[in-house]
């Protein structure tokens, strides 16, 4: 397990970007690309420690929590590996759910069941706490539960699926990309996850096709 000391180095190593507009979409986007069938071509997270690093970068876990989970995972490698496989199962179910949502297709029941189970686990961990004259739902400040890293992701997905933002859900039109995002553009015609990446590659491809001799 890696010590959580240099987040910028982790960010460079994982090559992560946060362009989804929602925690759950950024989690789905922890791949370097997908083919036309949705199969992962390149993965950005390869083990539980990568997931811990990503969560800190995403803002869903603080350094203290991440450091504690990293230590628990070092003591319980088999459990950490099993949790990582569970995280990948959730990610792929979320991808299919959101892809169906973006394309207005029926969502596979098995994927809904995966998300429903994770949401139930996350909600069971929430507690009601006073804050700023009101109350908020929160998670325990410190916990050694390895799946704590999945709780905010699951609840983020449930929130998105039951919100008006679902109508703005898009899948990047870039070749072999498959990243998901919420389209907040004024005309609701955003095509690319990131104009600097997929958008720019599409422009270059169009330019080369125009210059190709007939």
- Widest sheet, order of strands: 1-2
How many domains, as an integer? 1
The overall pLDDT average reads 88
Q: Counting H and I runs of at least 4 residues, what is the number of helices?
A: 8
Q: Would you tell me the structural class of the helices and strands? A: mainly alpha
Approximate shape: globular
What is the ordering of alpha helices and beta strands? HHEEHHHHEEHEEH
Oligomer: single chain
Main pleated sheet: 2 strands, antiparallel
Residue windows where pLDDT falls under 50 for at least 5 positions: none
CATH level 4 superfamily: Jann2411-like domain
**CATH architecture field:** Orthogonal Bundle
Query: Which topology does CATH recognise?
Result: Jann2411-like fold
Helix content: 40-55%
Radius of gyration: 19 Å
CATH class: Mainly Alpha
Report what the structure shows.
31% of the residues are buried. The chain is 51% helix and 11% strand. The model has no long low-confidence stretch (mean pLDDT 88). Strand 3 (127-131) and strand 4 form a beta hairpin. The radius of gyration is 19 Å and the shape is globular. A two-stranded antiparallel ribbon has the order 1-2. Strands 3-4 form a two-stranded antiparallel ribbon. Strands 5-6 form a two-stranded antiparallel ribbon. It has helices spanning 7-14, 23-28, 48-58, 63-75, 77-103, 109-125, 151-161, 195-211, and strands at 31-34, 40-43, 127-131, 134-138, 169-171, 180-182. It has one domain (7-211): Jann2411-like fold (Orthogonal Bundle). The protein has 214 residues and is mainly α.
């Amino acid at each position: 397990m890696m010590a959580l000391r240099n987040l910028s180095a982790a960010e460079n190593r994982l090559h992560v970007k946060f362009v989804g507009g929602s925690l759950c979409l950024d989690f789905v986007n922890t791949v370097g690309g997908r083919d036309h069938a949705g199969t992962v071509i390149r993965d950005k997270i390869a083990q539980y420690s990568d997931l811990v690093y990503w969560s800190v970068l995403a803002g869903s876990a603080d350094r203290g929590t991440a450091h504690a989970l990293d230590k628990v995972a070092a003591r319980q490698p088999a459990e950490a590996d099993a949790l990582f496989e569970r995280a990948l199962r959730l990610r792929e179910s979320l991808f299919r759910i959101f892809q169906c949502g973006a394309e207005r297709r029926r969502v596979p029941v098995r994927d809904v069941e995966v998300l429903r189970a994770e949401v139930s686990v996350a909600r069971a961990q929430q507690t009601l706490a006073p804050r700023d004259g009101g109350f908020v739902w929160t998670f325990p400040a410190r916990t050694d539960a390895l799946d704590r890293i999945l709780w905010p992701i699951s609840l983020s997905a449930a929130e998105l699926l039951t919100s008006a933002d679902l109508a703005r859900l898009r899948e990047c039109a870039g070749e072999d990309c498959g990243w998901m995002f919420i389209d907040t553009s004024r005309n609701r015609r955003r095509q690319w996850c990131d104009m600097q990446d997929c958008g720019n590659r599409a422009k270059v491809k169009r330019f080369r096709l125009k210059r190709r001799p007939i």
